[in-house]
Amino acid sequence: MPDTPVLELEHVTVQFGGVVAVDSLNLTIQSGEIVALIGPNGAGKTTAFNAITGVYKPTNGCIRFKGDILEENYPQGKMRKLYRGHDNGHYHERLERTPDEICRLGIARTFQNIRLFKQLTVFENVLIAYHSHIQASIFASTFRLNHREERQMRDGAMALLDLVGLADLAQEKADNLPYGKQRHLEIARALATKPELLLLDEPAAGMNPQETDELTNFIYDMKDQFKLTIFMIEHHMNLVMDISDRIYVVDFGKRIADGRPEEIQSNPAVISAYLGVQA
Amino acid sequence: MPLNKHRKLSPVLSLAALILLLVLLIILEQHQSSNRMAVAVLQKGAILAVAAVAMNLPNGFTGIFSLGMAGFMSIGAYITAILTIPTDTIESVYYISGVAGWVMNLKRALDVLPQPLLVLVALLIGGLIAALFAFLIGIPVLRFKSDYLAIATLGFSEIIRALVASPQLDRVTNGSYGLKNIPGFATASGSGVLLIPFAIAAVCIFIMILVINSSYGRAFKAIREDDIAAEAMGINLLKHKELSFVISSFFTAISGGMLAMYMRSIDSKTFQVALTYDILLIVVIGGMGSVTGSIISAFLITAAKEWWLRFFDQTLYIGNWQVPLLRTGFRMVVFSILLMVVVLFYRRGLMGDREFSWEDILGLPQRWRHRRVAIAAAKAEAAAPKDGGQNDA
Ligand SMILES: Nc1ncnc2c1ncn2[C@@H]1O[C@H](COP(=O)(O)OP(=O)(O)OP(=O)(O)O)[C@@H](O)[C@H]1O
Ligand SMILES: [Mg+2]
Asked: Per DSSP, what are the bridge partners of residue B281?
């Protein structure tokens, strides 16, 4: 029996009113892979991430995580008439989860436009992520009946900061960090939720070549240390070609190509849709 | 390192301040007849400090906008009042329509408790019932953006007020006649007028500080900072907003019960929306997200409003000339102007979202020295020729 994929998207469509942002997207990610999702601006990449993490409900289709259905939906109500996705009628169940539930199941993410807890310290940012798996009730936590757990959370957070090289900035306000460090902190915070699958939305956005190189190594390191599967959106082609095992290319919400980096580089559809834009 | 020295010093200073406060309260209690105003202001300040910290919990720490303070306070106040008014005088309080049978039975049952315990039980019951109401309101409302909660709690507050005053509840709340004969804070021997409210307030605020500094409190702050990120980090928004709102309402009701004991008589008009705004004002002036800010501001504002500015309400003659403007009500004008000035100079309240710390205070002279040196250096540089002329001292 082949391994069950970590993540499967089947005919996932996300439609906002009349706009089909993600159109019947199919993709599969195996355990331990680094997979990139690329495509021109507005192609629907972030929307796909938002559907996986429960921020938006898919309008149609099914998302599986480690073989179990994470979310499933079919066009209902107003959407039945409005629906313009390219795959209809396969699904009859409705299952939705909130983003926090999905995070606790083992999918963590970062955001395209960094979303740190700005006024809190670097340490607190990471510590808060440990709260997702807290055992103690609010009563126990208030009266410090869970001091062992609290200790573990704090030690874990500090160790994690050490690992990502932010330990000496632990007491700094997150907002005061340089941009590149903020991106690292966001990844560290996501790691603190103990994910199996990590979604990175343009982790290298706004970075110079040197910072991008550092980030590449960092992502490799983290993947090994935490036995992660990584799914990332990225515009930096060097980074993408360098790091990914496989690449999916989307345009106007639809998948136009997928394959290994060298296959993608020479794919004419991709060149015209995406690389062509850059050249 | 001077900063380290300060860190070691601060528990000592805190202890000293606490002892000083205790001594002060005891002395004031012994001379209460000659210091009525100070005693009243301190009592009310302690009560409003609890209410302000409780209001700060959702509004300043969790980023949800609750305006139901008056409603929850009135729940606490009425329950405390009904349960603590001496059973033998209660007929005279409800002299118009009489007391409902079940209220009477409940009171008789609780009369086995000694007085101090009865008060605590009454405060707790008030808090728990308010918490239950908050829980029920929260379920439908907290799913939405926080403006809904503001409107819903404001509405709830008014509904409670209307209910309390309604003739149907005459035999429970005494309708529009209100309740009197509520026992105050003093014990039979006359002591405790200050120590008791301060002790209750201290316990309440201490527990809220523990909540804020717990893992759940950190989650509240995460929601305040960025709810989308908080949710993506596995924090259940509805659950945590509910927790914050319910805990806040619990302690708000306790402050309401204390207010009933302070006022000795209450009616539905005591708990108008204006009361919520008074507390909101304390929170904003103290600083959203600062517990110590709320406490300091509760005492300062109460003292200013009820005491220090009294002078402006008294007509004053200098010789034959009556000083203009000084008349009843002018105090509130001055108070409002002062508030505006404070808000102008401290946009984020007196404390912002920081907390009081001895280290900060002790570090001040050093920081001032640093600043003086820095300014002097900048001046010297500006005075030096050919430096682009960009330095302003
Ligand atoms: N909440 C929303 N409501 C309506 N339309 C939306 C919403 N979110 C995204 N869209 C639309 O969906 C399309 C895809 O947007 P998305 O953000 O997923 O693109 P992207 O591939 O991430 O682009 P970029 O590279 O610029 O980040 C866009 O046309 C966008 O306007
Ligand atoms: Mg995007």
From this structure: none
Q: Report domain extents, chain B.
A: 37-285
The strand pairing partners of A250, in sequence order, are A255
CB contact (8 A) between residue B235 and residue A132: yes
Pick from A141-150, A266-275, B256-265: least confident: A266-275
- Give the minimum alpha-carbon distance from B233 to chain A in angstroms, rounded to a whole number: 5
Residue with tokens 């200073």: B13
The full DSSP string for B273-313 is HHHHHHHHHHHHHH-TT-HHHHHHHHHHHHHIIIIITGGGG
Q: What is the mean pLDDT of residues B61-69?
A: 92
Query: Is residue B102 very low, low, confident or very high in pLDDT (cuts 50, 70, 90)?
Result: confident
**Alpha carbon distance B74, B159 (integer Å):** 11
Question: How high is the mean pLDDT of chain A?
Answer: 91
Residue A62, classed as helix, strand or coil, is: strand
Give tens-digit pLDDT for A24-69. Answer: 999 999 999 999 999 999 999 999 999 999 999 999 999 999 999 9
Place of tokens 């993410």: A109
Q: How many residues does chain A have?
A: 279
The complex scores an ipTM of 0.92
Closest ligand to the CA of A41:
1
Contact state of B222 with A117 under an 8 Å Cβ cutoff: yes
Cβ of A15 closer than 6 Å to ligand 1, yes or no, is no
Residue showing tokens 């060298």: A262
Q: Delimit the domains of chain A by residue range.
A: 1-99+229-279
B337 phi, psi to nearest 5 deg: -65, -45
- pLDDT on residue B246: 97
User: Percentage of chain B surpassing pLDDT 70?
Assistant: 96
B182 Cβ contact list (under 8 Å, min separation 6): B80, B81, B84, B85, B260, B261, B263, B264, B265, B266
d(CA B58, CA B153): 12
How do residues A241-272 score in pLDDT, each as one tens digit?
A: 989 999 999 999 999 989 999 988 888 888 77
As a CATH number, domain A1-99+229-279 is 3.40.50.300
SS3 A259: strand
Of A117, A141, A153, which has the smallest distance from its Cβ to B229's Cβ? A117
